[in-house]
Specification:
Layout: E1 2-4, E2 11-13, E3 18-23, H1 27-30, H2 35-38, H3 44-47, H4 50-63, E4 67-72, H5 83-87, E5 98-99, E6 102-103, E7 125-129, H6 140-146, E8 151-157, H7 159-172, E9 176-185, H8 189-204, E10 208-210, H9 212-225
Parallel strand pairs: 3-4, 3-8, 4-7, 8-9, 9-10
Antiparallel strand pairs: 1-2, 5-6
Bound molecules: tricarbonodiimidic diamide.
Amino acid sequence: MVSVKARPYDYALEPGKTALVVIDMQRDFIERGGFGDALGNDVSRLEAIIPATAKLMGLFRERGWPIIHTREAHKPDLSDCPPSKIRRGSASLRIGEEGPMGRLLVTGEPGNQIVPELAALEGETVIDKPGKGMFWATGLHERLRGLGITHLVFAGVTTEVCVQTSMREANDRGYECLLIDEATESYFSEFKASTIEMIVAQGGIVGWVASLDDLATALEGAEAAA
Ligand code: TIU
């Protein structure tokens, strides 16, 4: 066990049972012309976490620990996208419509690819998820159980939408969840801050939050002591 300084109290990370989940770091959300932009958001805020997320991924890759990448992606015929979700998109550009980076939130389109700096390496898992949460209609729980994973470290976008939904879903399935502060972001700074407070409130009702430095220090310290 590696003890990581975190809120609301130290997180007990279990090497060998821990996976990193990087939520939806796809061009649709991070670059101009994508879904996030079509919803009227300032996407530059999200781009800023790419270096910290890359560093976090490096900590897992150096140790050979599993990394799961997710993408919010629908089938080209949109049969896995509820009409309610399409209706609530932007009036100018909706899910499945052709934008500057191809059809919005549709699997295989340029906008649906993970940004190049954070692209998955061979052997890493990429999950296309039709919902905001990573367990809905993905088979991910069974896959994680097959790998013996009980602990999940979270990164990605947006903090209050797909990251928080996925953390809550993971919590209900018994995973011990840790979010890394510098590796998640929202289009709304106040939503990120509120989400972090919600996660750690009531004794960690959804999980823990730590800084990237505190995670790196804990891992390196534990290895130096071994
Ligand atoms: N709109 C928004 O903030 N987020 C999403 O729709 N998806 C994710 O958070 N990935």
